[in-house]
């Protein structure tokens, strides 16, 4: 499998050095079933962005702005209605469908292997950061303290 082959060296290095391999990559969202098969002891963190924040970011990145090669793998509706939708509506649909899919797939795994976190809590709530690090089974690399206003 390509996911394993492309990461084998760094995963084996982490294992040999008694470290945890972690990857944050929204491009892997639709590969959860395959990742689960290849890495049966893996854990999944579903970091959910506020839909408005996602849409704003996707607009800046130009997602669904044109029909370039970069759009070929992006999730979109197979319906004539797609062409009639506004840019914001397309991106809102994408956020909704991606999060519905992930919630459904992750609900099939044991609760000990899945953590769902709101991005705004992750970035602005120290208790959420502690919950995240406990779930991922790693200690803080530095003392965590409130560093935002």
Helix and strand topology:
Layout: H1 2-16, H2 32-38, E1 44-48, H3 51-61, H4 81-84, H5 87-107, E2 114-118, H6 119-124, H7 126-135
Parallel strand pairs: 1-2
Helix pairs in contact: 3-5
How would you describe this structure in keywords?
149 residues; mainly alpha; two-stranded parallel ribbon; 7 helices; 50% helix
Task: Describe the protein.
- α3 crosses α5.
- The protein is globular, with a radius of gyration of 18 Å.
- It has one domain (2-135).
- It is mainly alpha-helical and 149 residues long.
- Mean pLDDT is 83; it is low at 144-149.
- The chain has helices at residues 2-16, 32-38, 51-61, 81-84, 87-107, 119-124, 126-135; strands at 44-48, 114-118.
- It has 7 helices and 2 strands; from the N terminus they run ααβαααβαα.
- The longest helix has 21 residues, at 87-107.
Major β-sheet annotation: 2 strands, parallel
* Shape summary: globular
Weakly predicted, low-confidence segments:
144-149
Summed over residues and divided by their number, the pLDDT gives a mean of: 83
Tally the structural domains.
Answer: 1
Give the helix/strand class: mainly alpha
Taken in chain order, the helices and strands follow as HHEHHHEHH
State the end-to-end CA separation: 45 Å
Radius of gyration: 18 Å
Helix count equals 7
How much strand content do the residues show? Answer: 5-15%
- Percent range for helical residues? 40-55%
Strand arrangement in the largest pleated sheet: 1-2
Tell me the number of strands: 2
